[in-house]
Amino acid sequence: MPNSFLLISHLPIIPPTHTTPRHVSPRMSLNNNNHNQTPKPPNPSSLLTSLPKLLWGPSLPPGLLISTVRTAWHSTWQLMMSQLAPSDPSGSYSRPTSKFRYVATTQFSRQNLHLYVGLPCPWAHRTLIVRNLKGLEETIPVSIASPGQDGSWEFKSSSIPGLDKDILIPGKDSANGCKNLKEVYGLRRGGYNGRTTVPMLWDVQNKEVVCNESYDIIELFNSGLNGLASNPGLDLSPLELKGRIEEWNRVIYPNVNNGVYRCGFAQSQGAYDTAVSELFSTLDMLDDHLGRSRYLCGGTLTLADICLFTTLIRFDLVYNVLFKCTKKKLLEYSNLHAYMRDLYQIPKVAATCNFTAIMDGYYKTLFPLNPGSIQPVMPSCCEHEALSRPHNRESLSLTESKYVQVQ
């Protein structure tokens, strides 16, 4: 979620104008017997109690108050959203590109890699899943950051529980001992003042960012580090399927992975309408396709499935409510929901899914979308027991299905 959690910590606070309300007599503010006494500072509790009475008094009609607050809040919201989620002129979310890309000529120490992630982030979640499936847990340690109140990624002891001892939880920076991810990026040669995003693969020996683009990292984990992996025989991007994987990614990334963000971060009705239409038409197509095929590319699990899964596992938990993806719940898609459960039940995948951390990271941090920070109860369909129900998709892997292409 490349800086999906970058919130506004530096907005100017406009002080109130110190004018006497029209319905209060000026003489009430004078005390001729106490000219030489130092005035006591106002009691914040008293001010908060008095303010509603003042605003709703006869000097300011309720209708005017509502329209004034609405205008002020909308302007403030637009300013915050422009920082949280930059948009194009139509109001459509425009995701910034990753700064550090991995290419074949990238130099790094393969024996000294460290992965930085945040559990709420679906892009970071991809790297955790491939790391586990390839058996890189011992050779590529991970530090898990939490979104702070100002939106930055912080390292701290976590109060967020795991479902069991194997579930990943946030913690300290075990590679550099930094307080936040910004400090880690700043350790690289020449420093760095840009967007500090997860996931990020770090070269501990050379103190350098290897890559902060999620798809580059999972491709590297899949085929570039087999000498370090305990499961080198697993290939999530076999040569004969690369074309189909890329074709699926061209559909899924803009319409689903980024599509939910285009819905949630839309800054105009038109931008939202376009995004939500493309999202659900793609989900309809995927549900139809997965009724005939166990995985996207037939009977073989691929990187395309991993990329789709990390959005689906968050859909009813977060995106349906907070990002206004409300046309249908994922639970209403029988094939898609069973497909998601199928992937969740692959050994080592469930351990990467900390639903409490995911909900905290969205509902308590994305202030412009949820100003009250009130977190809804977890949907019962997203609990571990529900996701562990039989999916009955094994028979589909016996028959290779025809690939469906979106026009």
UniProtKB/TrEMBL annotation:
Residues 18-47 are annotated as: Disordered. PROSITE patterns: GST_CTER (PS50405). InterPro entries: Glutathione-S-Trfase_C-like, Glutathione-S-Trfase_C_sf, Glutathione_S-Trfase, Glutathione_S-Trfase_N, GST_Omega-like_C, GST_Omega/GSH, Thioredoxin-like_sf. One of its GO terms (cellular component) is cytoplasm. Pfam families: GST_C_2, GST_N_2. It comes from the Eukaryota. It comes from Quercus rubra (Northern red oak). This is GST C-terminal domain-containing protein. Coiled coil: none annotated. Signal peptide: none annotated. Residues 238-380 form the GST C-terminal domain. Residues 28-37 have a biased composition (Polar residues). GO terms for molecular function: glutathione transferase activity.
